[in-house]
Design brief:
Elements (H helix, E strand, L loop, with lengths): L1 H46 L8 H10 L2 E3 L9 E2 L10 E9 L4 H11 L5 E4 L1 H6 L1 H9 L3 E4 L11 H19 L1 E3 L1 E2 L10 H7 L3 E3 L3 E2 L10 H11 L4 E6 L6 H16 L3 E2 L2 H7 L1 H4 L1
Bound molecules: zinc ion.
The site of zinc ion (ZN) has 6 residues, from strand 3.
Length: 286
């Protein structure tokens, strides 16, 4: 009996020791993570414009205060649309750029938009965002809207779990990279029946198609002049223009953009982001 009790006691002691070890290891792990996080915060502060004397707590507040949500008016939640009804007061147009972030082209587009004091909407692809997070940060820092264009840019039919992963993974990386929550979605290739749009509708995304295709994704790329002509001829108030900053060589789009902006201005158009365009017509749709 005594022997059994001793063995039990021994086991108990061993279990307690193991428990202590686990607690100690956990505490050590937490401590190490905190130290690494602190170091990270301090580095960000030191290289940024934030007062280097400010403590990590302030830095956290700063992240929270820069969170942006591109929400969707109720009338457009889960809806597929290619333009909005103009309220007749102003001629509004939304320029949209798909398939980035892309090396060179996206930053060139951003520079032209900046010079012209115009805001646009960028439909980003998750795997591109993973490659060029800094470009996406610049898109947001310069006041543009960002939207979800799936992770892989697949056209094929997919089951709900795959469609969910395509959209949710991209949404999560957009948030992780830019602090933005966006409820705007465009299916790759404009394919409406492969499972992506059905999932996006379930999640109350606004499914933003386009009213004018610049033609810049055609295999034989039109000249910049033709791209500009396509947009300027096809536009109507409340329209959405489809262009590409990624998914191949789009220097032609970059070259056409100043002509497109100038031509639309001459027609009296004002440039807005998609969330702004939808907000402008909210009263018409409710
Ligand atoms: Zn696309």
């Amino acid at each position: 009996m005594v022997k059994i009790r001793r063995i039990k006691k021994k086991r108990k002691n061993l279990a307690q020791r193991r428990l202590r070890l686990v607690v100690l290891m956990t505490a050590l792990a937490i401590l190490t993570t905190n130290i690494i996080q602190c170091a990270g915060n301090f580095t960000s502060q030191a290289v940024g414009t934030v007062d280097p004397m400010a403590m990590p707590g302030n830095f956290t507040t700063q992240i929270e205060s820069t969170e942006i949500v591109f929400g969707v008016p109720p009338a457009y939640q889960g809806k597929v649309f290619n333009k909005v009804e103009s309220d007749g007061k102003e001629k509004l147009v939304a320029l949209t750029f798909d398939d980035g972030p892309w090396i060179n082209t996206t930053t060139e587009v951003l520079e032209i938009l900046r010079k012209n004091e115009i805001k646009a909407t960028f439909f980003v692809v998750g795997q591109q965002l993973q490659k060029y997070p800094q470009i996406a940060k610049q898109v947001i820092a310069e006041g543009h809207a960002i939207a979800n264009h799936t992770w892989h840019h697949w056209y094929r039919r997919m089951d709900e779990a795959t469609a969910a992963k395509e959209i949710d993974d991209t949404a999560n990386l957009i948030y992780k990279t830019t602090g933005v929550k966006t409820n705007y979605f465009r299916p790759p290739g404009g394919v409406l029946n492969n499972g992506l749009v059905a999932y996006a509708q379930k999640r109350d995304y606004a499914i933003a198609m386009w009213s004018v295709d610049s033609g810049d994704s055609r295999r034989r790329r039109p000249t910049p002049e033709t791209l500009a002509k396509n947009v300027l001829k096809g536009i109507n108030p409340g329209g959405i223009v489809l262009m590409h900053d990624g998914g191949g060589n789009h220097e032609g789009t970059v070259q056409a953009l100043p002509q497109i902006i100038e031509g639309l201005r001459q027609q009296g158009y004002k440039f807005v982001t998609l969330p702004e365009l939808l907000a402008s017509s909210q009263s018409d749709n409710q």
